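quick one before i forget lol
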Amino acid sequence: MATEKKIAVAGATGRLGRPAVEILRERGHEVVPISRGEGVDVISGEGLATALEGVELIIDAATGPSPDQAEATEFFTTAARNLQQVGAERGVEGILVVSIIGTDHFNTGYNAAKVVQERAHLNGPVPVRILRAAQFHEFVAELVEWSTKGDTAYLPEMRTQLVAARSVAEALANMVDGADSAPLGNPIAEVAGPREENLLEAAKLLAAKRGNGLSIETGEIFEDPEGLYTAGAVLPGPLAKLAGPTYEEWLNG
């Protein structure tokens, strides 16, 4: 049985943070939610020292409000610096950072900001492990909304291995409990869905499920001048943890 820990979850009210808090508590851990709603701000640092008192491990699942590269970079670097500095002062033993599979292939956009976040944490005083995840199932509906013009949504034919946010939360909990089997000395692990999927086709499944007459067409909404998304840059490596359900199973569940 895993040893119970006191764990702080940054981004506790987000898409990943909510199930992570729930699963960790189900497994007997004491969880400290970190969010502005809880009076703790990873950017200003307000309430952070108090929140991290007695905490052994931090999960950094916080996300910024903007997909813009510059704004996202500023958010992630500031949050990482504050979590590392205050965490070190409070005797935190480690930080689990949530990132994106393939993010290190990108030099522009949100993915490039995530690379900077990873480096900021890895250069900090508190030891770090990184869990890179594939795009969430929940992400498809968001992208459809963002890309809709009139009665048509325009999405790229991104090759991905869509994964449920709850499956990623379970992978995080397994890392906390020491149940994952990452290679020794490797600070980066990956989690993805059970099979390769296409973002455009997933959006078509969503539109059919909703039955609202929305047409799904090919279009670009990401910065991807080198065609990395269609080339499979965000697909998992051979050592990735694969976790169901598929997108269609999740959608119809």
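fyi The first strand starts at residue 6 and ends at 10.
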